[in-house]
Amino acid sequence: MNDMPMYIASGIGVLLIVLGFVALLAQRIYLDSRTQSPIEIDLPLLGKMKANYPALFFVFLGCALTVFGVQQQHKAVREVQWQIDGTIEADAQQINWQQGRLEVFPTKVETEIDPATGRFKIKLAIEEGKTLEDVVERIDYSHRTGSVVLLPKKELEQFKKKSAGSLLTEATNTSRTYKMPLGQFPPLNN
């Protein structure tokens, strides 16, 4: 979640309010050019004031920016941190798993894979109220010796049906654990 717009707008708003009040305290009075008498303004809640337009402008602009910043915070999308982990398994021995490529579509995420065991972790932020299956269409691991494609929505459906073919082994509100067999490519004949 990005709170920066709220902090910037609120910070500028507070600064303008302070500058406006300092200018009001300094009370530079502006005169009407025709009558040469001080200009008076009747403001709700503040009463009659001798016109100090720049100071009033700073105060009202500062209040507006502060309100805008707070409203942006309330509109901001809340995200929940998710973790997806699991193991990629293969019949072949001595595969360096880091020589492969673990990708999540269509999201940019943090991925890590243990070179010796094939255990992987995927960390991503998902909008509150949504699940992994709502935002990730597929997880793909490709290696020169083989590949595996995982479709999270399909795997969750099979998991809920307690299907023996599901690659999903565990599911919580903010995590998933998979066991993925690497489909190996046949050896090349030279």
Quick description:
With 190 residues, the protein is an alpha+beta fold. The protein contains four helices and eleven strands, in the order αββαββββαββαβββ. The chain has helices spanning 4-26, 53-75, 132-135, 152-160, and strands at 40-43, 47-50, 79-89, 101-105, 110-113, 119-127, 138-143, 146-150, 168-171, 175-181, 183-184.
Question: Can you put this structure into words, describing what you see?
Answer:
There is one protein chain. The protein has helices at 4-26, 53-75, 132-135, 152-160; strands at residues 40-43, 47-50, 79-89, 101-105, 110-113, 119-127, 138-143, 146-150, 168-171, 175-181, 183-184. By secondary structure, the chain is an alpha+beta fold. It has a five-stranded mixed beta sheet, covered by helices on one side. The chain has a four-stranded antiparallel beta sheet with strand order 4-7-8-11. A hairpin with a 3-residue loop joins β1 (40-43) and β2. It starts with a helix and ends in a 6-residue tail after the last strand. The model has no long low-confidence stretch (mean pLDDT 80).
